[in-house]
Specification:
This protein has about 180 residues and is of the alpha/beta class. It is built from 5 helices and 6 strands. Strands 2-1-3-4-5-6 form a 6-stranded parallel beta sheet, sandwiched between helices. The radius of gyration is 15 Å and the shape is globular.
């Protein structure tokens, strides 16, 4: 059975965030990335934490990552051999190269140039303030991911008003069936 690894973004996911709701819903099968400081914007801090959490595990993971968490997972996957991740749902990665609102994440600005060897959905919104939908399409193409356009949902977070985000759960189920 696959285990879900939930990787929140910058500042973590509050109790109203769909990731936190999913973590509760799938409590017996989910774990959250263990970081002591979700405001730390050092790339090495995030990638090392992701690698440390999964590298020696006998579990096979499906990654469920949001925002900086999605970007951090892409950097980790591109740099290290990770054989126990079977698929990934990368939601609302910020455009750290071309979006001034994401400039504070400057350590992540050199985006990894690689293709995932696993099924990946890159989920993006048409009105995300941190990444234009066209740029999300470029990232998906660059990484060999399938772009999923969910329409106007902002940064696909608590402020988006999507609650449990059933549309996202449907995408997760699709990934599990691949």
């Amino acid at each position: 059975m696959n285990k879900f690894l939930i990787i929140p973004g910058y500042q973590g996911s509050d109790e109203n965030h769909w990731q936190s709701r999913w973590e509760k819903k799938y409590a017996s099968n989910a774990e959250r990335l263990m970081l002591s400081d979700f405001t730390n914007t050092e790339k090495k801090y995030w990638t090392k934490a992701i690698l440390e959490q999964i590298k020696d595990s006998e579990s096979e993971y499906v990654v469920i990552a949001h925002s900086l968490g999605a970007l951090s997972f892409a950097h980790t996957y591109a740099k290290y051999v990770i054989n126990n991740v079977k698929s990934a749902l990368l939601v609302a990665p910020p455009d750290v190269e071309k979006n001034a609102k994401a400039a504070f994440l400057h350590e992540f600005t050199t985006l990894p140039d690689f293709k995932f060897k696993i099924p990946v959905y890159l989920v993006a919104s048409t009105d995300d303030p941190y990444c234009k939908i066209e740029r999300a399409g470029e990232l998906a193409e660059k990484w060999g991911a399938e772009l999923i356009n969910v329409g106007p949902k902002g940064h696909i977070n608590s402020e988006s008003g999507i609650g449990d985000w059933p549309e996202g759960e449907k995408l997760l189920q699709e990934l599990l069936n691949l």
